[in-house]
UniProtKB/TrEMBL annotation:
Protein name: ABC transporter domain-containing protein
Places the protein is found: Membrane
Keywords: ATP-binding, Coiled coil, Membrane, Nucleotide-binding, Transmembrane, Transmembrane helix
CDD domains, A to Z: ABC_subfamily_A
Membrane-spanning intervals of the chain: 44-62, 372-395, 415-443, 455-473, 485-505, 563-581
Family in the record: Belongs to the ABC transporter superfamily. ABCA family. CPR flippase (TC 3.A.1.211) subfamily.
Cellular component annotations (GO), alphabetically ordered: membrane
Stretches assigned to coiled coil: 617-644
GO terms assigned for molecular function: ABC-type transporter activity; ATP binding; ATP hydrolysis activity; lipid transporter activity
Family annotation (PANTHER family): ABC TRANSPORTER A FAMILY MEMBER 3-RELATED (PTHR19229:SF154), ATP-BINDING CASSETTE TRANSPORTER SUBFAMILY A ABCA (PTHR19229)
Keyword Lipoprotein: no
C-alpha cells in the first residue's frame, strides 16, 4: 500500500488560499446546478422570466381591451350626397364620452371663462380666529346664502373700491343665438373641480349650476342657458351668487386672512375660503398697478399634485387684459375692464368671450402594466436572492464547513473576499439576465429608463444585499429556519411596499424624514428605487416621451438620488458591521481586536505563564504519580527557551456554565500534557469524559476557560490562525460537502496546504489510494453517496494531506469494518513518523495498536498516562482466573483459588461461573494447571481459563476508581 505523501510546504499565501476557495465554490456551484437542489435552482432562474412573461401577457390583454371599438374614437356612415352611398367618418361628434377621449380635436370647443368659487360650506364667515366683522355670520351656511368674498387693498382706497365696484356688472338681456358673446361681460364661476385638459370643461358636465357673481341677487335669480357642443346642445343652469368686495388696509392683512382661511384635509376640503384678492398698490387715474391672489389649492384625486389647469383667466380679466404670472401673485400693469369703465364710463367694455384648449391629434389610451406592477413583482424577483445567499452561508456554518476550512489554513481575508465576490458575481449575472430578458420582451420598465441608471442602482443594491446576508448569517444557525424567515422577508417586503409604503410616498403631507427612516430598511429602499423607475416609465409610455434620465435625478420630487445615497452608505456600514460581528462571535476574537497590535510569532520561544495553579476552584484531588510527573514535565518545558515538543498544554480548563438550574459542567480540569514530534497520543475515557472538549479547544472551536496551550510554539489563544496552517483535523463527525467528490475535497484542502501542480495531483492520488478510495470510480463520486465508513476514510485523508505537523483525530475508525479499520491503522502508523497526533477512541485494540502513549480521562481529569505496557503493568499486576462449574460446586472453586493465592479477589459470579484476580507475584502458571487437574477428579469442571490483564481491564479499573473517588469527594 502506498504511503501518504510527505511534502513539506510553507504556509499558503493569501492568493493561494483565495484560488483554492474560488475553485471549490465554482465546483460546488456546478455540482449544485446539475444535481443538488435542482428544483430550487430552476425556480430561482425561471421566476424572473415567468414574471416578465406574465406582465407581457397582462399587457397584451389590456391592449386588446383598450383597442376595442368602444374605447376608440366613434365612427359612423354619413350619406354626404343623398344617393344612398355613405362615407365613413370618425370624430368626437360621433363618439360617446368614453370614446371622445381618443378622438382628434382639431377645433376644440369654446367655453365661457369661469372663476373658481369655494363650495357653499367652505365660504368665508366670521369665526373665533377671524377678527373682521365685515364677513357674514356663520348662520348663512344653514340657509345656503353665504356670499363669495373678494378682498381689496391698495394705497388709494377710493380708487380701489371704485374699480372693484365695476367688476360685477348687472347682466342685460341674454341673446341665446350668440350665448358666448352675451355672457362675456358678466362674471361666471363654478364650484366644480378642474381637470388636466379643457376639451370638456367639467363645469358644464356636472350637476352643479354655473354661478353668476353679482353685487346683489334678485329673488328669482336662477335660469337656464343653451350651450352648443358639437352637434349636441346642453342646457346649463345658472344661479346668482352675491359677491362681497371687502377692503383691507394692507397686503399683509390679506396674506394673514388667506392663510387662516386655508382648510386642509381630503382633496375636496383642501381649498381657500376666499375667491380672489387684489392689491391696487399705487394705482390711480394715470397708473394701473395690480397684484392678484388667486385660488390654486385644488389637488388631483390622489392629493399629490396641483391640477394642470386653474381658473385664473377670468379673475385676471376682471381687472386686466394681459398679465404676468409669478407663483401665487400676478403683477399687472395694463388696461382692464373695471379700470376702463372708471376712466371712460360704463359703456366701455373689453370682452373676454371664451377660452379654448389647444388642438390635439388622435390619441389612444396607453397603460403600461409592467410599470404599474413592476415595483411589487420586481421587488420579489430581486429580493429573492437574499434567502439564497443567506442559506448558502448558513449551510457552511451549520455543518461546520467554514471552521473546517479555517482549521486547514483558510484565512478570514481570502474567505471574505472570495465569498463576497462569488455571491456578488452570481447576483450580477442574475440581474443582467433579468434586465436583458425584460428588455427583450419589450417591458417599458426597462426600455424607457436609462440603462446606466439602472445598472448603478442595481449594482449598489446587490452589494448591500450580499453584505446584509453576511450580517444576518451570524444570527441563524439552521438553514431551514433561515430559509423560512428569508422568504417571509421577501414576500412581506413586497406586500408592505405596495400596500403601505407606496401610500406614504404618494402622500405629500407625510414627513420626508419618515420616508427616509423607512428607506433605511433595504427592502423599502429597493421598492422606492423600483417605484421611481415605474413612475417615469409609465409617464413616458403614456406621454410618448423618455423615462428616467440622469438630469431627472436633480428633480426634488425624484427620490432616486436619495435612495442611491442611502444604499451606498448602508452597504459600507453593513459590510463593516458584518465583518466585525463575524470576527467577534464566529472567530471568537476580542471585541476590541482592531485596537490591539498583532502578537509576534513565538515559534522560537514560548511565553512563560505563571506556574501557579489556575482556576476559581481548588480541587481536592491527589494526582497519580505519572500525572504529576507529566505536569512537572510541562512546567519545565515552559521554562526552556526552545523545545522539540509539538504540543504543550498547561493547566487547561473548560467549564460550561450551568443552565436551567443545573450546576456548571467541568469538561476539562487543569490538564497538563506534552507531546513530542513523531508521537501518537491516545485519549481514552467514557462518554462525556472531556476528550472532545479538549480537542475542540486545541483546534479553536471553543475557547478555554483558563490555562494555556501551545502548538509548534504558538499560543492557541492568540495565534490560532497561524496554527491552522500546520494543522490537520479529522473531526468526530464528517464535515463534508455532499455534492463534492472525494477527489474535489482533497484538491481543495491540498491547495489550502500550498500544494500545487503535479505535487498536488500526486498527493491527492496517493491519499485516495492510501484510504482505498481511488479504485472503482469511488474518488469521483459525490460524498453524499459515500457510506459512513467511506466518509470516515475521506476525513482521515483530508486531515493528513499536505504534511501537517499536528493532527487531531476524534474517533477516526468509528463505523469502519474490520478490514477498513486495519487499513486505516496502517495509514496512521506511517503518518505519525514526522508529526504529532492526538487520537481519541473507544477501541482498546486501536489504542494499543497505534498509540505510543495513552491517557485515561474521567470527568475531565487525566487519571493516568503512559505507554500501554506500562499501564497494564501498573494497573493490571494480576491474572484473571475463570472457571465454570455446576452451582453446587461454587464453594469448592473458591477454596481452590484461596489455596493458590490467599489474596485472590473475586470480581464476577453468576450461575456457576466465577472470575478471580490472582496477584502475579503469588502464583505460578504451572501451579494453576496442576490444581485444576486435581479439581477435575473431585467435581465437574465445565470450562476454565487464565488470562493476563488487558488494556480494557485497565480502563475499566481506572474509570471505576476515579468515579468512586469523585463521588466520595
Amino acid at each position: 500500500m502506498a504511503d501518504l505523501p510527505n511534502v513539506p510546504n510553507a504556509p499558503s499565501s493569501f492568493w493561494t488560499q483565495a484560488n483554492a476557495l474560488l475553485r471549490k465554490n465554482l465546483t460546488f456551484q456546478a455540482s449544485s446546478l446539475s444535481k443538488r437542489s435542482i428544483k430550487t435552482n430552476i425556480r430561482l432562474v425561471l421566476s424572473p422570466f415567468f414574471l416578465c412573461l406574465l406582465l407581457v401577457l397582462i399587457q397584451s390583454l389590456v391592449d386588446n381591451e383598450l383597442d376595442k371599438p368602444s374605447n376608440r374614437c366613434g365612427c359612423t356612415c354619413v350619406d354626404t350626397d343623398g344617393n344612398g352611398q355613405c362615407e365613413r367618418r370618425c370624430g368626437i361628434e360621433y363618439s360617446t364620452l368614453d370614446q371622445g377621449f381618443t378622438c382628434p380635436i382639431t377645433h376644440p370647443p369654446a367655453w365661457p371663462p369661469l372663476l373658481q368659487i369655494p363650495k357653499e360650506q367652505f365660504r368665508a364667515v366670521r369665526t373665533e380666529s377671524t377678527s373682521y366683522q365685515d364677513l357674514p355670520d356663520g348662520s348663512c351656511k344653514r340657509t345656503g346664502s353665504c356670499p363669495a368674498t373678494m378682498l381689496i387693498t391698495g394705497n388709494n382706497q377710493t380708487f380701489g373700491q371704485s374699480v372693484a365696484g365695476n367688476m360685477f356688472p348687472t347682466p342685460s338681456n341674454i341673446n341665446f343665438s350668440d350665448i358666448l358673446f352675451s355672457i362675456a361681460d358678466v362674471a361666471l364661476g363654478s364650484e366644480s373641480r378642474t381637470e388636466y385638459t379643457n376639451f370638456l370643461d367639467a363645469a358644464f358636465f356636472s350637476n352643479t349650476p354655473l354661478d353668476l357673481l353679482q353685487s346683489q341677487c334678485a329673488s328669482n335669480s336662477q335660469f337656464s342657458v343653451p350651450l352648443q357642443l358639437g352637434s349636441a346642445t346642453i342646457q346649463q343652469d345658472v344661479r346668482c351668487i352675491q359677491t362681497l368686495s371687502l377692503w383691507r388696509n394692507s397686503s399683509s392683512e390679506i396674506n394673514d386672512e388667506l392663510y387662516k382661511g386655508y382648510r386642509r384635509g381630503n382633496p375636496e376640503r383642501q381649498i381657500n375660503e376666499i375667491v380672489a384678492a387684489y392689491d391696487f398698490v399705487n394705482s390711480n387715474e394715470n397708473l394701473f398697478n395690480v397684484t392678484i391672489w388667486y385660488n390654486s389649492t385644488y389637488k388631483n384625486n390622489t392629493g399629490n399634485q396641483p391640477l394642470a389647469l386653474t381658473r385664473v383667466a377670468r379673475s385676471v380679466n376682471l381687472v386686466t387684459e394681459s398679465c404676468l404670472f409669478s407663483c401665487f401673485k400676478l403683477l399687472l400693469i395694463v388696461a382692464s375692464n373695471s379700470y376702463l369703465q372708471f376712466l371712460l364710463g360704463p359703456a366701455t367694455k373689453l370682452l373676454f368671450e371664451f377660452v379654448k384648449e389647444m388642438p390635439k391629434p388622435e390619441t389612444r389610451l396607453r397603460l403600461d402594466f409592467s410599470s404599474l406592477l413592476g415595483p411589487l413583482f420586481f421587488t420579489w424577483v430581486i429580493f429573492q436572492l437574499f434567502p439564497v445567499i443567506l442559506t448558502s452561508l448558513i449551510y457552511e456554518k451549520q455543518f461546520r464547513l467554514k471552521i473546517m476550512m479555517k482549521m486547514h489554513g483558510l484565512g478570514d481575508g481570502p474567505y471574505w473576499m472570495i465569498s463576497y465576490a462569488y455571491f456578488l458575481a452570481i447576483s450580477t449575472m442574475y440581474m443582467i439576465c433579468f434586465v436583458v430578458f425584460g428588455s427583450g420582451v419589450g417591458l417599458k420598465f426597462f426600455t424607457l429608463n436609462d440603462y446606466s441608471i439602472q445598472f448603478v442602482f442595481y449594482f449598489l443594491y446587490i452589494n448591500l444585499q450580499v453584505s446584509l446576508a453576511f450580517l444576518v448569517a451570524d444570527v441563524f444557525s439552521n438553514t431551514k429556519t433561515a430559509t423560512v424567515v428569508g422568504y417571509m422577508m421577501v414576500f412581506g417586503t413586497g406586500l408592505l411596499g405596495a400596500f403601505l409604503f407606496q401610500f406614504f410616498l404618494e402622500d405629500s403631507s407625510f414627513p420626508r424624514a419618515g420616508i427616509i427612516a423607512m428607506e433605511l430598511y433595504p427592502g423599502f429602499a429597493l421598492y422606492r428605487g423600483l417605484y421611481e423607475f415605474s413612475q417615469y416609465s409609465f409617464a413616458g409610455n403614456y406621454m410618448g416621451t423618455d423615462g428616467m434620465r440622469w438630469k431627472d435625478l436633480n428633480d426634488s420630487k425624484n427620490g432616486m438620488s436619495e435612495v442611491m445615497i442611502i444604499i451606498a452608505v448602508e452597504w459600507l456600514i453593513v459590510l463593516g458591521v458584518a465583518y466585525y460581528v463575524d470576527q467577534v462571535f464566529s472567530s471568537g476574537r476580542d471585541p476590541l481586536f482592531f485596537f490591539r497590535r498583532h502578537q509576534k510569532n513565538l515559534s522560537s520561544s514560548f511565553r512563560k505563564p505563571s506556574l501557579q495553579r489556575q482556576g476559581s476552584k481548588v480541587f481536592v484531588q491527589i494526582e497519580k504519580q505519572d500525572v504529576e510527573e507529566e505536569r512537572e514535565k510541562v512546567e519545565q518545558l515552559l521554562l526552556e527557551s526552545t523545545t522539540t515538543h509539538a504540543i504543550i498544554s498547561h493547566n487547561l480548563r473548560k467549564i460550561y456554565p450551568g443552565r436551567d438550574g443545573n450546576p456548571e459542567k467541568f469538561a476539562v480540569r487543569n490538564l497538563s500534557l506534552a507531546l513530542s514530534q513523531g508521537e501518537c497520543f491516545g485519549m481514552l475515557g467514557p462518554n462525556g469524559a472531556g476528550k472532545t472538549s479538549f480537542i475542540n479547544m486545541m483546534i479553536g472551536l471553543t475557547k478555554p476557560t483558563s490555562g494555556s496551550a501551545y502548538v509548534q510554539g504558538l499560543d492557541i489563544l492568540t495565534d490560532m490562525n497561524r496554527i491552522y496552517t500546520s494543522m490537520g483535523v479529522c473531526p468526530q463527525h464528517d464535515l463534508l460537502w455532499g455534492t463534492l467528490t472525494g477527489r474535489e475535497h482533497l484538491l481543495f484542502y491540498g491547495r489550502l496546504k500550498n500544494l500545487k501542480g503535479d505535487s498536488l495531483l500526486n498527493a491527492v492520488e496517493e491519499s485516495l489510494k492510501s484510504v482505498n478510495l481511488f479504485y472503482g470510480g469511488v474518488a469521483d463520486k459525490q460524498a453524499r453517496k459515500y457510506s459512513g465508513g467511506m466518509k470516515r476514510r475521506l476525513s482521515v485523508a483530508i486531515s493528513l494531506i499536505g504534511d501537517p505537523k499536528v493532527v487531531y483525530m476524534d474517533e477516526p475508525s468509528t463505523g469502519l469494518d474490520p478490514a477498513s479499520r486495519n487499513m486505516l491503522w496502517n495509514v496512521v502508523k506511517r503518518a505519525k513518523q514526522n508529526r504529532a497526533i492526538i487520537l481519541t477512541t473507544h477501541s482498546m485494540e486501536e489504542a494499543e495498536h497505534l498509540c505510543d502513549r495513552l491517557g485515561i480521562f474521567v470527568d475531565g481529569s487525566l487519571q493516568c498516562v503512559g505507554n500501554p505496557k506500562e499501564l497494564k503493568a501498573r494497573y493490571g499486576g494480576s491474572y484473571v482466573f475463570t472457571m465454570t462449574t455446576p452451582p453446587d460446586h461454587e464453594q469448592e472453586v473458591e477454596n481452590l483459588v484461596r489455596n493458590l493465592s490467599p489474596n485472590a479477589n473475586k470480581i464476577y459470579q453468576i450461575s456457576g461461573t466465577q472470575k478471580f484476580e490472582l496477584p502475579k507475584q503469588e502464583i505460578r502458571i504451572a501451579d494453576v494447571f496442576e490444581a485444576v487437574e486435581k479439581a477435575k477428579s473431585r467435581f465437574t469442571v465445565q470450562a476454565w481459563g487464565i488470562a493476563d490483564t488487558t488494556l480494557e481491564d485497565v480502563f475499566i479499573k481506572v474509570a471505576r476508581g476515579a468515579q468512586t473517588f469523585n463521588t466520595l469527594s
